[in-house]
Amino acid sequence: MFFASDNAGPVHPKIMQALTEANQGYAMPYGNDALTAQVRDQIRTLFQAPQAEVHLVTTGTAANSLALATYCQPWQTVFCATHAHIHEDECNAPEFYMGGAKLTLVPTDDKMTADALRTSIEGEETRGLHGPQRGPISVTTVTERGAVYSLTELAALTAVARDYKLPVHLDGARLANAIAALGCSPAEMTWQSGVDILSFGGTKNGCMGVEAVVLFDPTKSWELELRRKRAAHLMSKHRYLSAQMNAYLTDNLWLQTARAANTNCSRLAKGLGDLPNVTISNKPQANIIFADMSRATHQRLHAAGAEYYVLAGDHTKGAPDEMLPARLVCDWSITAAQIDRFLSLAKG
Amino acid sequence: MFFASDNAGPVHPKIMQALTEANQGYAMPYGNDALTAQVRDQIRTLFQAPQAEVHLVTTGTAANSLALATYCQPWQTVFCATHAHIHEDECNAPEFYMGGAKLTLVPTDDKMTADALRTSIEGEETRGLHGPQRGPISVTTVTERGAVYSLTELAALTAVARDYKLPVHLDGARLANAIAALGCSPAEMTWQSGVDILSFGGTKNGCMGVEAVVLFDPTKSWELELRRKRAAHLMSKHRYLSAQMNAYLTDNLWLQTARAANTNCSRLAKGLGDLPNVTISNKPQANIIFADMSRATHQRLHAAGAEYYVLAGDHTKGAPDEMLPARLVCDWSITAAQIDRFLSLAKG
Amino acid sequence: MFFASDNAGPVHPKIMQALTEANQGYAMPYGNDALTAQVRDQIRTLFQAPQAEVHLVTTGTAANSLALATYCQPWQTVFCATHAHIHEDECNAPEFYMGGAKLTLVPTDDKMTADALRTSIEGEETRGLHGPQRGPISVTTVTERGAVYSLTELAALTAVARDYKLPVHLDGARLANAIAALGCSPAEMTWQSGVDILSFGGTKNGCMGVEAVVLFDPTKSWELELRRKRAAHLMSKHRYLSAQMNAYLTDNLWLQTARAANTNCSRLAKGLGDLPNVTISNKPQANIIFADMSRATHQRLHAAGAEYYVLAGDHTKGAPDEMLPARLVCDWSITAAQIDRFLSLAKG
Amino acid sequence: MFFASDNAGPVHPKIMQALTEANQGYAMPYGNDALTAQVRDQIRTLFQAPQAEVHLVTTGTAANSLALATYCQPWQTVFCATHAHIHEDECNAPEFYMGGAKLTLVPTDDKMTADALRTSIEGEETRGLHGPQRGPISVTTVTERGAVYSLTELAALTAVARDYKLPVHLDGARLANAIAALGCSPAEMTWQSGVDILSFGGTKNGCMGVEAVVLFDPTKSWELELRRKRAAHLMSKHRYLSAQMNAYLTDNLWLQTARAANTNCSRLAKGLGDLPNVTISNKPQANIIFADMSRATHQRLHAAGAEYYVLAGDHTKGAPDEMLPARLVCDWSITAAQIDRFLSLAKG
């Protein structure tokens, strides 16, 4: 009953198998192997973007930081949501990679609105060269609160960016889950919606540790390649990154695992929603839900071995009926039986 | 017949197996899993350094850059050999991580001597605050030219560092090969020789992609941890780094693979040395040799599928008897049969 | 009738004279001259801080950025007010100097409150090493909105900092005006209130271009000295910085010019406050006021040659009676006649 | 008898007077004043470069660092002479501004040769993306050893740069002295010789503290402007920088002071050259000479109040007849009488 994060689950067997299969003899290092070339083509095909350039790295923070640094000058500021991962969870990695650029937090509880984005952009460059200059927009879907931007919402944001001639980065650590949720195509959610550069996640969705930076405009690809090397993120035995991504993309495994995670989450949400003693506080769209449960419930669940984060308050002591919020994340590998056991325990 | 680099070979089967075994259920991310704790203890035991702190990363450049940044202020300069990997092969990653510190190249064809090091150190800080300030010494063993510092040579270097109260970093991307060559203990080659911080390589010696930064003085361990995160090198599914390192350290697999590579190289060196038309230009001590062979020989070898770097000149065209230098690297996985075939082809 | 900024006024005659007097023969460069030594002592005496260390630079942004970089690690965040100069008006200079640290904006219209500061601090480091780590507090007095922290308010802020063992920086670009406003001593407003490092401004208050960074704890003075050089802010003909500061401190010229500016502002505020068609929107404490006046009034003033910033809206066209906000800054050199003329024009 | 440096002399009276004259009333800050506009035009006229853009800063290190950062990516390396000021005397400021780029030292005792430059350039980018990428060439004239590049030598260097499509920076902290030495035009020594961006010094040649960065190709001027602000080098009371530069350029004062310094140095060199106990070790071309004198001579000179640097050995104790090298720099303000007294003392 593990709902703490989707980065704690196992690697999908097909991906493990791909690693084993790639482990034959010698392969040219640093991405100069055949498997890597194949992965680039797979991504171009998947995103219907024949001109796209692709660089693989091992962490989502590296993907985001490299993408932003390539599109943001050090004297600029990135526009992102208040609770963006790049702001709250990357220990200043974007600022490090960008050489000291700033993040401007567009006020929101979760998703950015186009209006709020426009207001934030208008708020910068009002002081000539004294303030930070306007830089890229960074959007995250699935958001930190489990929401998915509709294509309309996304297009509204990128339209604002275009008004100011600002580039758009999409943090898609959970892009697969978002695509599964909307049922759209990868192209629709990215470059057709106005995205210039994408962090396309694999790690949270069944891979061991691989993320792709996808440049829909290849102009800055060589710069990003040099930035990757300079950031110590060019793997020498690169074939093992490519093997993961290759298997992930083959037969749409990425979509299957994302659907599995979303379905698991749906089952959990429905089950919890039916319980009188539980309140779900977000609208579950992908694989993350937020639920308020009583301290007694939390204690019962933890005692039975459930793992997840209680976001506020100490669930180990205090009034049994006090409601405390929790975040529950489903990965692809959790079973219906585990979910049902969790529900049964939550019911009490 | 692959002699281009030891970062192009396969992962050792025991390490692949360890990855498969680690792939069960959930594990806390970011190094908060049991396997990672075990690896820390294994390294402490291996290096007889109970107080040491350990951080795993995926590339040698990351290990070096984090180690140096933790010990070097941005207004200082690192003393290293002319052909150090940190200078020639890391695309300014150390400078990036260190915030713009400098590298001072201690003149040498290969190994630094204590005298040359002292002269270089004396050459800095002669101009008060105008020049760069003296920073750490960075030593590499096995060197880029295939040499191994004797313990006496190493102690002489660190004694100079101590005279100036400067810390010592050891780039041990091939430390296993160096230890195998000398037959000393890991402790003797590191902290007992005056090393403060170590990059301990796994990737070139049978792992998929894992290097350990070992701080023998744990004081700055938390700083390094934060630097690792900020550099986007904290893996979320960290257990897969730890699984590699765990298997690598179990039953001294690291030493076995290093010995295998060195033995292979020895066989190759002896064989080439016996050929009248080949001149070996370094003293092979570990798993790298440099050999001069005629263009015709290079052509014959390449035509037969041998892979290695010809370091100067175009081996594909020109006078057949012109001698051209080559670098030949043996990894643990090459077979005696492959070596013998190479030798037979080289003989002509 | 120049009220645009206090950085546009002339240099005080005594300071110009000091520059002329310093212009005799040779003087050792880089601060190794007698005048610089004297200035250090003057500042120690003025602040009753015999152990303090002093470094002169030419801009307030340099003073702030060096001070913050010396007290903030790149993986930390600085706590400052929403509209702090270091955030809005320094084009990412603090981030550049700090190597990519972040600024956390403590929500406020102007002055930070101790409660809001505490909440902001509590909001960081809730995510272990994933988020930015807590760094220094940076307080500005006189604030960007013309307010002065009382000693009680200042002590409350630094008490919060002390609770979290965080250092305190005071941006005192207009410290002289703040001290003149409160009538306290320089020591009371700084280290006796818990300030660790100070930017002490001269430029806006009658100097040509000189600011002092004052370290009340001298431990990091050499680091700051190296940072100053590395930032290209160590003047070779340093005596001309020292000459300014020397004259500025002699016979409390700094206090006289600050009092003059405050008095001028007081006269302006009182005059405007008496006008029925003007609303003063801040509580003028030092040399900055904010006033709402009709578009017609703005047009009349500008037509007569008055210079100041209208903060929102276009004063050149639109409804004559629409009220538009303006910022009015008085420097030491403005005359009562100029103020009275402005008032007369404002009255209409 | 001050020969320690040309950055220790007084400000030329005409420049002091210009500062006084500029000190009238208000002027828009940050370079938005009439005097600054005039200075830009003066420089365009002086260099016969109507399209050039100009930015003033207070130190030569700032000028160099901003110029290089604007033309060098962080993953590149700058080619400069072994003893370039940017390498030896700026405490890593260029590396800081460039975000961690490297300097490649072209081997030389003093001036770079085109051949050595070409060899150094060829030595980089031999390792694909693993090593630093080729960046700008930085040439200094007058050199640190007092030499001046002939126009032919300069053209040969920039021709090499052009072969590799690399930009050229000229560190002209003493450009005036170099131009005075050659008798050429400013245009001939800069853009007509292939220079893209120039640090044009004022401080060492009679100004208080002002250097101009001149972009002959204005494309990156706005970037440099933002970099200047971000580096805290945009002076608010900018008119006082402009006033210096305005006077410096008026009636070719810059050339007069440079000629005076060169003439003084010539007198000194000729006088010392005539002495049997002194050996001049460079070919004096501008305002710097290097001379070997006995310890007894050094002691006699210092005892009489002469100030200059003895470059090696301790002149205060040891064998009286041991020869020790000294650097002697003449600024514009030294008098013939002072030089003659120095010569008389040197003669003994």
List the keywords:
alpha/beta, homotetramer, Aspartate Aminotransferase, domain 1, Aspartate Aminotransferase, domain 2, four-stranded antiparallel β-sheet, 14 helices, 348 residues, seven-stranded mixed β-sheet
Task: Explain what you see.
The structure is a homotetramer of 348-residue chains. The model of chain A has no long low-confidence stretch (mean pLDDT 97). Chain A contains 14 helices and eleven strands. With 348 residues, chain A is of the alpha/beta class. In chain A, the strands form two sheets. In chain A, strands 1-7-6-5-4-2-3 form a seven-stranded mixed sheet, sandwiched between helices. Chain A has two domains: 13-251, Aspartate Aminotransferase, domain 2; 254-347, Aspartate Aminotransferase, domain 1 (Alpha-Beta Complex). Chain A starts with 12 loop residues before the first helix and ends with a helix. Chain A has helices spanning 13-22, 34-46, 60-71, 85-88, 93-97, 114-123, 151-163, 175-182, 186-189, 221-230, 239-249, 253-273, 295-303, 336-347, and strands spanning 53-57, 76-81, 102-106, 133-140, 168-172, 197-201, 211-215, 278-280, 288-294, 309-310, 323-329. Chains in contact: A-B, A-C, A-D, B-C, B-D, C-D.
